[in-house]
Amino acid sequence: MQTTFPRLLQQHATERPTASAMREKEYGIWQSLTWVDMLHMVQDLAAGLHQAGLRRGEHMVVLGANRPRLYATMLAVQSLGAIPVPLYQDAAAAECVFPLNNAEVRFVFAEDQEQVDKLLEIRSECPQMEHIFFDDPRGLRKYDEPGLASVDELQAAGKVFNGIHPDFFSAQVQQIQPSDVAAMFFTSGTTGKPKGVVHTHHSLLDRAHVGAKFDKLTANDEVLAYLPPAWIGQNIFSYAQWLACGYVVNCPESAATASIDMKEIGPTYYFAPPRIFEGLLTSVMIRMEDAGKIKRGMFHYFMDVAKRVGPALMDGKGASVSAGDKFLYALGNFMVYGPLRNNLGMSRVHVAYTAGEAIGPDLFTFFRSIGINLKQLYGSTETAVFVCLQPDNEARSDTVGIPCEGVEIKVADNGEILVKSPGLLREYYKNPAATAEVLTPDGWYLTSDAGFIDSHGHLKIIDRVKDVGRIKGGAFDGAMFAPKYVENKLKFFQYVKEVVAYGDGREKVCVFINIDMEAVGNWAERRNLPYAGYTDLAQKPEVYQLIKECVEKVNADLSVDTLLAGSQVSRFLILHKELDADDGELTRTNKVRRGFIAERYQVLVDALYAGQSSQFIETQVKFEDGRTGKVSATLKLEDAKTFAPVKAAA
């Protein structure tokens, strides 16, 4: 797509000035901004930033949740030929130091007092940071800091400037080329310092356009922008595709109201990582368990019908479904599926995507069977998201789709997936060594993912290349070990929230498990099992038995997989605390930092492999208000049954 973000804004404002561009819920009421409103806001912000000294090629950090003025600031920055750098709004202050210094950031957009306080805390470590512009003034009235000003002031100054120089904005926008840098996204830093992924207007908009064309997205679509803008997935869905298609982006009042806001808006295009879909299904099942006998019976009866009939109807294979089943499904749609979709806020969704992690087959089937067109995609920050997509009639839980337009894929001898695409990063900022590691001279990007193309042309991901190892010694000596694959299979159970698997170079596989507090808590309450918080519940013998059954079901599944039968779990424990990004155990995108966790809980790893039945552990934790404390417990270490590999039939 040979254009730029600001030019697309101008185009929408010219062609459909009064159409809604964004909505924001404030004080319980949805406020709408038209395309011409958005253009005027961007023009004034751009002029204000120019007067403040932001220049072409400079970086400006945006720090906050999805808000119209955050998006307008990004467009204003791009209009000047500068580069917006979104950071995670829930990142601790110390996590912002490296990106701010690495990108030599002088200008920052901060949503509110929380973000301003964070920046002021690290100001001495970021001496080049001159200007902080805040959006929400609550709590900031008496702040007297050099360079601290409101976005209102910035916008007002820009308005005056534009009155004197009416052609300034258009002249600036005309200078920007599709090959210019449009944005920089920092990686989550799973294995070290974050890297700044540099993308051009062309790389981001090309992929946005291809994704929109694939799923027939139009200006009539609506999305709910509720995930962090710093995550490239949210940025593509609610920024790049927003401008490519011209649809409406809705910003919820807060993370806590997102599910209510979703029901009010009824988006037509929806994206969520598997954990969000898992949470939705868990809440549905909990409500059903608490429902009356008749209602519960009706739900389970029609869900059986849906699982048998729904996927075939969703895949356009209605001819294979009997008239009787079609009637039952229609009745179920009236009595159960329709009300359920409405309750989830998905009545109008015509395409829903999940990515980032594998999704359980039962979870995937559940949503497709009740009439929600849930599909998987494959991509990364470095590929501007869209590498593989699933066609409507070929959605499967065990693959991530076919290469989308413009993409070439090949598999290296070691199983690594290589990608060639118009959406590839230009470079890692100030890191030529890291760039050379992932981009070959002839234009291939090394994904670090291991997988293969199946007989239907779909890509199947096994694990990260560096994480695929071998069992050494014991009954499965020499067998392949794929930790992510094992972790995901366990996370498919509603009672399991997080898993960390170890086994490379060892004689057996052992795992740490986090239970899902909501699902297991409800399970315990229905059995009159008292508990006093997460730590107490996690160590209940009944809960260990529940999780052991999940582990052994996974082992039974793995035993029939000729490649991964050796990845069966021999021992496990349930951690005394939930893994947390604030404690360094997860990235801001909720990916497990396996190496860090192994170091932090070395005593537990050793105890599992030494065959101990229990182990005391004390861990320092960080609370939301910044205070620290300690959590301690004596953890039970449990054996799980493993199964002899099942030989494939000749």
Plain-language structure description:
There is one protein chain. By secondary structure, the protein is α/β, with parallel strands linked by helices. The protein is globular and about 80 Å long.
Briefly, what is this?
The chain is built from 21 helices and 28 strands.
Chain-wise SSE layout:
Blueprint: H1 5-15, E1 20-26, E2 29-34, H2 35-52, E3 59-63, H3 68-79, E4 83-87, H4 93-102, E5 107-110, H5 113-121, E6 131-134, E7 148-150, H6 151-164, H7 168-175, E8 181-186, E9 196-200, H8 201-214, E10 222-224, H9 232-245, E11 248-251, H10 258-265, E12 269-271, H11 274-289, H12 293-314, H13 323-344, E13 351-354, H14 361-369, E14 374-378, E15 388-389, E16 402-403, E17 408-411, E18 416-420, E19 427-428, H15 432-438, E20 445-453, E21 459-464, E22 469-470, E23 480-481, H16 483-491, E24 496-502, E25 509-515, H17 517-526, H18 534-538, H19 541-559, E26 569-574, H20 594-600, H21 602-609, E27 614-622, E28 628-639
Parallel strand pairs: 1-11, 3-4, 3-5, 5-6, 6-7, 10-11, 12-13, 13-14, 25-26
Antiparallel strand pairs: 1-2, 8-9, 9-19, 14-15, 15-16, 17-18, 18-20, 20-21, 22-23, 24-25, 26-28, 27-28
Annotation keywords:
single chain, 650 residues, alpha/beta, five-stranded mixed sheet, 21 helices, 39% helix
